[in-house]
Request: fold
Amino acid sequence: MSIPPLVRQPVWALLDPEAKRERLLKAAGEVFARDGLGTPMPIVAAAAGAGIGSVYRQFPSKHELIAELVVDRLDQIAEGAREAGARAGDRWAALTEMLWRLLERQSCDDFFGDAMLTVSDHPAVIAAYDRASASLDQLLVDTRAEGRLRSDASPVDLRLLFAATRAAKQVEPTAWRRMLELFIDALDTRRGEPTGANPGNGGSGAR
Reply:
C-alpha cells in the first residue's frame, strides 16, 4: 500500500470547510476503492493534499469518515429516485434509466458493501438509508401502477441488485452491466418482447 502522488489542486488552506469536506470524501472513496477500508488515514490525507490533523478536524474518526461516505452514496440513490419520479414519461423508463445512471456512477465503489456493514448502526446512516428506501419505494409504487413492473418488486430487491453488481465485478470488471440487464429483465412483466438496445450496450437511454 503506497501513498499516491499528489495531484495539482487548490491549496488546502484556501478552501472553505465544505470544499475541504468534499475533497476528503472524494479522496477517501478513491483510496478505499483501491486499497480497502483498512487503509490508514494518513494515506487518505495525502491523497486529498491535506495534513492528518486537517482530516481529523473534518472527521473526528475513521468511523465517522466512512459513515459520511455511506451517507453520501445513499443520498445519491435517494436523489436519483426522486429525480426519476419527477421526470416526464413512463415510470418504467424512469426506473431503468435511474438504475443504469446510479450503477454507472457507483461502479467503482467496491468498498460500499463492507462500509455499509461497518457503520450500519450509525444514526446518520440509518436516517440516510430510510430516505433512500422511501424514495425508491415511491418510485416502485408509481412504476407498478403502470403494469410493467412485477407486483412484488421492493426496495430490498434493489439493494440485492446493488450488492449483486458489486459481486459480479469480482468475476469480471464489466460484469455489473450484464447483471443489471438480467435484473431488469427479471422485473419486466413484458420480458421477451423486443425493446431495442439498452443503455448499457451503447443504445439510447440515460447515461
